[in-house]
TrEMBL record:
It comes from Chitinophaga caeni. NCBIfam families: transpos_IS256. It holds the Pfam family Transposase_mut. Residues 52-76 are annotated as: Disordered. The keyword DNA-binding applies. The keyword Disulfide bond does not apply. The lineage of its organism: Bacteria, Pseudomonadati, Bacteroidota, Chitinophagia, Chitinophagales. InterPro entries: Transposase_mutator. One of its GO terms (molecular function) is DNA binding. It comes from the Bacteria. This is Mutator family transposase. Keywords: DNA recombination, DNA-binding, Transposable element, Transposition. Belongs to the transposase mutator family.
């Protein structure tokens, strides 16, 4: 880089362009900028040492005492540095702290970003080695991703809006290691639509199994965080679920997922009858009114009731919760008759978590789902389609519970 004491700019430019074209790191091993960065960092450390060795330090006999060597991993490669030391070992550098081997939050953010997209620690380590010529152990990578934990806890406790127009509640299931055994874990997710028509993941909670009792504690947590009212809640057909909602939010209209009911029904229909049964069932849930739906259900009962009494009985037993959506307009019906909205969110989360076997802990599970959710929510920037019309209809139906800001 130097010729007869002069800085060789042309050589630097040539090497820089060559490495840019080849995709090599400019700052890593043999990088064009590596000597420059090394000189800047070492000069900065020397400057910090000069400031540290003030008159008082020197009067007490403190002096420079040679240099240490350390390897510093950065987002652009690994650099070998010579760091100054003093006789009293009282020098505490700030630009590169003692025992600091990874420089720049940018590398940490890259690691957390890769982890949040589902890459394993082993794959991340290999990727960093390939891209930045830097080796980072799995233990170091784990400690870096653990920096997300305070963010998860802060997010879980954050205040919520007082009113949500529509809320979907559903669960996902995973394996977690506990005391040498692999156990089942249930992740409860709550997805809401606020008064502006924007989707928001209100919370996620981990339990040993799905049950109405745990959902009750989840709903109580929402209340503690500021939610005072939910207009419509969309749920699966878990026993006691609607009663749990009524305990915390007694004015909330509850809609049980029709698609879940259909799936459960088909499980008890012989394969040869499934197609004709579905053709006769469709007029029930696609009716224009609850009265017409009841009439169609009676016809379904007449034709199939004797052969499949358990299925028909299930529809009649859950009828009130299955037919809440009939009292609303078509736009609102499409949103609430199924839990597809939150199931779509779950599908995106599973794309990230599907490569994992059993998680090492509940927090490791939450940590990854949190990062996946943060990436998914970046796309939730716009209100739902035709929300202005939908929210106007909701305000008419629910009156003073939904006051529009005009």
């Amino acid at each position: 880089m130097e010729q007869k004491g002069k800085f060789d700019y042309e050589e630097l430019k040539r090497k820089t362009l060559e490495q840019l074209r080849s995709g090599k790191s400019l700052f890593g091993k043999d990088g064009a900028f590596a000597p420059l960065l090394k000189d800047i960092l070492e000069a900065a450390l020397e400057g910090e040492m000069e400031v540290h060795l003030d008159d008082e330090q020197r009067a007490n006999g403190n002096r420079k005492n040679g240099k240490n060597r350390k390897r510093l991993k950065t987002a652009d490669g690994t650099i070998d540095l010579e760091t100054p030391r003093d006789r009293a070992s009282s020098f505490e550098p700030q630009i590169i702290k003692k025992r600091e081997t990874i420089l720049a939050e940018s590398l940490e953010s890259k690691i957390i970003g890769m982890y949040g997209h589902g890459m394993s620690l082993r794959d991340i380590s290999a990727h960093i080695k390939d891209m930045y010529d830097t080796e980072i152990s799995a233990a170091t990578l784990s400690s870096i991703t653990d920096k997300v934990i305070p963010l998860v806890k802060e997010w879980q406790a954050r205040p919520l809006e007082p009113l949500y127009c529509i809320v979907w509640l559903d669960a996902m299931f995973y394996k977690v290691k506990e005391e040498g055994k692999v156990v089942n874990r249930c992740v409860y997710n709550i997805l809401g639509i606020n008064t502006d028509g924007r989707k928001e993941l209100l919370g996620m909670y981990v339990s040993e199994s799905e049950g109405a009792n745990f959902w009750l504690s989840v709903l109580a947590n929402l209340q503690q965080r500021g939610v005072s009212d939910i207009l419509i809640a969309c749920i699966d057909n878990l026993k006691g679920f609607s009663e749990a909602i009524a305990t915390i939010f007694p004015s909330t209209a509850v809609q049980t997922c029709v698609v879940h009911q259909i799936r459960n029904s088909i499980r008890y229909i012989a394969s040869k009858d499934q197609k004709p049964f579905m053709a006769d069932l469709k007029p029930v849930y696609q009716a224009v009114s609850k009265e017409e739906a009841e009439s169609q259900l009676d016809q379904l009962d007449e034709k199939w009731g004797k052969k499949y009494p358990v299925v028909i009985d299930s529809w009649r037993r859950n009828w009130d919760k299955l037919t809440t959506y009939f009292q609303y307009s078509e736009a609102i019906r499409r949103l609430i008759y199924t839990t597809n909205t939150i199931e779509g969110f779950h599908r995106q989360v599973r794309k990230v978590t599907k490569t994992k076997g059993a998680f090492t802990s509940d927090m490791a599970l939450l940590k990854l789902i949190y990062l996946a959710a943060q990436n998914i929510q970046k796309k939730w920037t716009q209100p739902l389609q035709n929300w202005s019309l939908t929210v106007s209809q909701l305000s008419i139906i629910f009156g003073d519970r939904l006051k529009l800001r005009l």
